[in-house]
Amino acid sequence: MREYPELMEVADGIYGYIQGSGGWCVNNAGIITSAGNAALVDTAATEIRAKRLKDCVHDVTGVDPFAVVNTHSHGDHTFGNCVFKDSTIIGHHQTRMEVVGAGLHLTELWPTVHWGSLEITPPNVTYANEMTVHIGDIRADLLHMGVAHSTNDTIVWLPTERVVFTGDVVMSGVTPFCPLGSVRGTLAAIERIRTLDPLTVITGHGPVGGVDLLDVAEQYMLSVQTWAKQGIAEGIGPLELSQNIDLGEHAGLLESERLVANLHRAYSEEVSTTFSDKLEMRAAIAEMGTIFGEMVAFNKGPLTCHA
Ligand SMILES: [Zn+2]
């Protein structure tokens, strides 16, 4: 059993900060350091985890990060922003809106987690399509992926070292999750990441890997689309369908209950001509209570948050 959080240097001055096997709310971060500068990719879900991350950045780089990039708005990646108030927090325009809009809602889903003292701290520098941050000699391109895992995904691409931080567009050893994103959009984002030709893939949850992680996520999403077509043809809903699916090659992914949520999204995308527009998104948000209930039913018990 490995000790976590694990710090893995994948190229000179570029680290994956890997928290556990990556289940609910246990996300990864990235540390980039060069010439006496440091930047961070994502924070953590709880105050104690964010402070531990801050200590680690300081130990490794000798400085506090001048910038924190949020890959998307979800609380496990952004709640810890409040521990980095002296840093510039960077994210997509929509990330800022969603961080403010969602507030601490995630804490209500798992009230027994020791969240600590959290204060919503949205990105204070935002961008639209692309932005470049220079950390000493290291160039980091922030690329907006559109609607994929969430409404507001950013990947961080280091073109010289060919390292990509995917956020939750791709996860490693963990079931993808896009009820408030898009199955189609995730597939498009994976394709775009593949064209960058990365050597190292550091995902939002789970161990560091290579392009094989893109293949795993892609195959899963293609299966979800196939299953959704079958379910619609047979006239059965996502929960009942998921209870009868043989996960096959995808059986090893953690948090398999997410299948129900992903199928809800895939069903919508099969019948909808519009693609993740605002109305469709509002409908998806309204459905989230039901979807979480169905995931609990699939799981035959409460979902375990590991934060
Ligand atoms: Zn997320």
Can you offer a commentary on this structure?
- By secondary structure, this protein is of the alpha/beta class.
- It contains 9 helices and 12 strands.
- Helix 5 (183-196) packs antiparallel against helix 6, helix 6 packs across helix 8 and helix 8 runs antiparallel to helix 9.
- It starts with 5 loop residues before the first strand and ends in an 8-residue tail after the last helix.
- The model has no long low-confidence stretch (mean pLDDT 94).
- The chain binds zinc ion.
Keywords:
307 residues, alpha/beta, 7-stranded mixed sheet, 5-stranded mixed sheet, 9 helices, 12 strands, 20% strand, binds zinc ion
What does this entry show, briefly?
With 307 residues, this protein is α/β, with parallel strands linked by helices.
